[in-house]
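To: structure desk
From: M.T.
Subject: fold request, one chain
Message: Could you run this one when you get a chance? Sequence is below, nothing fancy, just the single chain.
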Amino acid sequence: NTVAGSISDGVKYVIKSNGTKEASFVLTPGSKSKYKVTAYTIGSSDGSAISISAPSGSDIYVNGKKLSSSYISKTNVTPDAAKHLPSGITVPKYTNYKVSGLIAPAAVTVKKNGEKLSLQTNADKTKYTASLTNNTKLQKKYSDYVLKAGEMYAAYMQHDASLGQVAKYFESGTDLYKSLASTETFFVTSHSGYSFSNEKSDSFYAYDSNTFSCRVTFTQTLTKSGSQNYVDDVDLTLYLRKTGTAYKVFDMQVAQ
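Reply: Done. Structure tokens follow.
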């Protein structure tokens, strides 16, 4: 921590990590107590800012503090999921929040009706998006299936699976399937073996009796004798609908 020096309404502190400024704030003096001790309060600050998007009606906590409505930046927001679903399907609305002036790393928690929701965030942890309430029945029934679908996609993109194998899980005729069928993977990493680990599926949500989405994450490792392993953390949101008697992926989001 570095003291920048006195200013007209207090003392400014600059917080640095490895020489890089993370935040600053001003301690403003108040009146002295009967013990002749001056009380200080935190005045202005220019700490980091984060944005949070959550299903409307959720409770948002940042560093243990529940956010009031004063932090809302936008209401009645249509989530990205709507772009990936067939027309006519109703998607629950979201509410966006913005928190600025943070002088400590943000610990974000989102709850809906008392249940903790899964969170996705970007690389620098400035944007957080909460999932819809997880459908545990769907998760129990289709967890293995959607993980296999995600892994088959990842294997296909590295020439470790055929389009025929992918077709077992992906709906033919869709824009996604056509894109996969015509994909020319110029940037395949040279390897002789591969494996998947840290598999997880969550955020199952049923939009109607024939359509649901979920999130799958796993680590894909490509191996080659004499070379360093290539490791990729894969994060996919899958959108599935019933075709005949089986659910198949008809659209997908790949986390950046």
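Reply (cont.): DSSP finds three helices and 17 strands in the chain. Let me know if you need anything else for the meeting.
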